[in-house]
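Hi Y.,

Following your request, here is the sequence exactly as I used it, all 237 residues.
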Amino acid sequence: MPSALERIDLPLSLGSMGVLLFCLLGVAAIAALARKELRDDLRQRRTLLDAAAGLLDDARVTVGSDGYPRLNGTYGGDSRISLEVVPDSLVPRRLPQLWLRLTLLAPEAAPRPSIGVLARPIGTEFYSRVLGLPESIVPSFATDFPLLMRGRGVTEVAIERTSGLFRTLFADPALKEIVITPRGAGSVRRIAEGERGAHVLYRQMRFPVSQVSPEFVRNALAELRLLNDVLEPEPAS
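Below is the corresponding structure, written out as C-alpha cells. Let me know if you'd prefer a different format.
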C-alpha cells in the first residue's frame, strides 16, 4: 500500500507530465508554422524579379542556391544588364536588409578610371565593389552620413566630373553604393527591411515585398545610364 507521501507525489507527477506534454506540443506547433512560412517565403522570393523582366530584352531569370533570383538581359541597346537580389543579415543592431545589386556592362571597355562611393560603410558589405578598389579618395562633397570613396587610376578631373552626380544620387537614402569602371557602371539599392517578428522569433530573413516593381528598376537603370555616361570623353571641338 503506498505511503501518504507517495499518494501525494503521484498526481503531482502526472500534472508535471501534462504540462511538459503541452509545452512540447506548443513547440511542435510553432516549429510547423515556421516551416510552412519558410516554404511560402521560398516560393515567393523566386518571383521577386518577374515583373521587372519585361523591361529587358532577351530577359532570363535564374535562381540561386539561396532561392533569390537574378535577372540578365539587354537594355536600350547592346549593353548587358544584370540584376541580383541580395539578402543581408550582417548589419549589426539592425534588421536584415534586402538589396538590389545592378550592373551595366558595355560591349567594350572605355579609357577611364574606376571610381565609386559606398554610403554608411560598416565593413561587412560582402556585395560591395567599392571595397575592392585599391585607392582611397577624400570625397569632395558632404552628406549627413559617412561615405567611403575609392578608385583606381582616378584623376582630379574624374573626381570633379562625378561629384555633382554622386551628390545628387545620394540624396536618396535607399542608395547604398555606386561605382563606375572602364566596363560600365553599377549600383546597390535597398529594396526592403526585414520583418522584425521573423527575425527576433525565428532568426529568419523575411521581407515584406512580393515583387520588385518595374518603376523601381526603371529608375535604377536610368541612374546606371547617367553613371556610365558621366565620364564619357568630351566631344572634339
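The helical segments are 4-45, 156-169, 196-202, 214-229.

Thanks again,
Q.
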